[in-house]
């Protein structure tokens, strides 16, 4: 009985992988690159086992069972930093030569608190989520912004 | 500047910026004027004065809201009513 259950489980596993690779249902029961543990299979009738061994073809596209959903590419700290610096360079009140990741908006770049509000708004537009005022007040350098966005978007390295 | 007031001024500036994006004469024009208006009152330290200015700002927000609403109303009327009927109703005047 355990073998039957196991066989059923094993048979169900490659179904999702086969949909990904091709519609060939002859490969259905056999595209299992992982589970070739001989011990439970010994309980299965020998005819079935030979069929399995014959038809085992490792579908190269499926080493890991994965589903592919539509989404943006995952954020990395590098990409966040690039985007933040790019947006800052486009801002006309900032001198792009003086801009560095650790430059303070008010002290180093000579900006105003109102300009800082505008910068945070530009970041909200770029990354597509709202930054509440309480936390926006504290973001005073590009490094702070990168850190904040990484925290909010669960990006760790 | 007292902290709650500072926050309110920021909030006001932010709201005005969001509204100014759709300003008919251009978002940049609006931003320039907004900046000038805020910079003029940069050195005001009396909380009552600040409160008054913030209220002025709120009035401006209301006015912008009505402006956009009216603009929307007028375009919709123009689109869905025929010319003669518009003339009768006196709506869709060339002021917009």
UniProtKB/TrEMBL annotation, chain A:
<keyword id="KW-0275">Fatty acid biosynthesis</keyword>
<keyword id="KW-0249">Electron transport</keyword>
<comment type="function">
    <text>Carrier of the growing fatty acid chain in fatty acid biosynthesis.</text>
</comment>
<keyword id="KW-0496">Mitochondrion</keyword>
<dbReference type="GO" id="GO:0045271">
    <property type="term" value="C:respiratory chain complex I"/>
</dbReference>
<protein>
    <recommendedName>
        <fullName>Acyl carrier protein</fullName>
    </recommendedName>
</protein>
<dbReference type="InterPro" id="IPR003231">
    <property type="entry name" value="ACP"/>
</dbReference>
<keyword id="KW-0596">Phosphopantetheine</keyword>
<feature type="domain" description="Carrier">
    <location>
        <begin position="78"/>
        <end position="153"/>
    </location>
</feature>
<dbReference type="GO" id="GO:0000035">
    <property type="term" value="F:acyl binding"/>
</dbReference>
<dbReference type="GO" id="GO:0031966">
    <property type="term" value="C:mitochondrial membrane"/>
</dbReference>
<dbReference type="Pfam" id="PF00550">
    <property type="entry name" value="PP-binding"/>
</dbReference>
<keyword id="KW-0813">Transport</keyword>
<dbReference type="InterPro" id="IPR009081">
    <property type="entry name" value="PP-bd_ACP"/>
</dbReference>
<dbReference type="InterPro" id="IPR036736">
    <property type="entry name" value="ACP-like_sf"/>
</dbReference>
<keyword id="KW-0597">Phosphoprotein</keyword>
<dbReference type="InterPro" id="IPR006162">
    <property type="entry name" value="Ppantetheine_attach_site"/>
</dbReference>
<keyword id="KW-0679">Respiratory chain</keyword>
<comment type="similarity">
    <text>Belongs to the acyl carrier protein (ACP) family.</text>
</comment>
<keyword id="KW-0809">Transit peptide</keyword>
<keyword id="KW-0443">Lipid metabolism</keyword>
<keyword id="KW-0276">Fatty acid metabolism</keyword>
Automatic annotation (TrEMBL), chain B:
<dbReference type="InterPro" id="IPR052000">
    <property type="entry name" value="ETFRF1"/>
</dbReference>
<dbReference type="Pfam" id="PF05347">
    <property type="entry name" value="Complex1_LYR"/>
</dbReference>
<dbReference type="GO" id="GO:0022904">
    <property type="term" value="P:respiratory electron transport chain"/>
</dbReference>
<dbReference type="InterPro" id="IPR045296">
    <property type="entry name" value="Complex1_LYR_ETFRF1_LYRM5"/>
</dbReference>
<comment type="similarity">
    <text>Belongs to the complex I LYR family.</text>
</comment>
<dbReference type="InterPro" id="IPR008011">
    <property type="entry name" value="Complex1_LYR_dom"/>
</dbReference>
<feature type="domain" description="Complex 1 LYR protein">
    <location>
        <begin position="7"/>
        <end position="55"/>
    </location>
</feature>
<dbReference type="GO" id="GO:0005739">
    <property type="term" value="C:mitochondrion"/>
</dbReference>
<dbReference type="GO" id="GO:0090324">
    <property type="term" value="P:negative regulation of oxidative phosphorylation"/>
</dbReference>
<protein>
    <submittedName>
        <fullName>LYR motif containing 5a</fullName>
    </submittedName>
</protein>
């Amino acid at each position: 009985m355990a073998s039957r259950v196991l066989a059923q489980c094993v048979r169900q596993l490659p179904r999702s992988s086969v949909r990904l690779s091709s519609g060939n249902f002859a490969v259905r029961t056999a595209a299992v690159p992982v589970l070739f543990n001989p011990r439970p299979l010994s309980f299965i009738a020998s005819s079935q086992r030979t069929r399995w061994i014959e038809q085992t073809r490792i579908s190269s596209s499926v080493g890991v069972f994965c589903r592919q959903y539509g989404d943006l590419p995952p954020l990395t700290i590098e990409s966040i930093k690039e985007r933040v610096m790019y947006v800052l360079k486009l801002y006309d009140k900032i001198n792009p030569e003086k801009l560095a990741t650790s430059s303070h908006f008010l002290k180093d770049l000579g900006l105003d608190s109102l300009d800082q509000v505008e910068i945070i708004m530009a970041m909200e537009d770029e990354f597509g989520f709202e930054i509440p005022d309480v936390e926006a007040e504290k973001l005073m350098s590009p490094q702070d912004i990168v850190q904040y966005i990484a925290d909010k978007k669960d990006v760790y390295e | 500047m007292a902290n709650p007031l500072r926050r309110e001024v920021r909030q006001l500036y932010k709201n005005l910026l969001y509204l100014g994006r759709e300003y008919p004469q251009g978002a940049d024009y609006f931003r320039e004027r907004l900046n000038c208006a805020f910079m003029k009152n940069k050195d005001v330290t009396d909380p009552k004065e600040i409160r008054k200015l913030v209220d002025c700002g709120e009035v401006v927000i209301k006015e912008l809201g009505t402006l956009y609403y009216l603009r929307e109303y007028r375009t919709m009327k123009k689109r869905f009513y025929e010319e003669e009927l518009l003339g009768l109703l006196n709506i869709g005047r060339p002021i917009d």
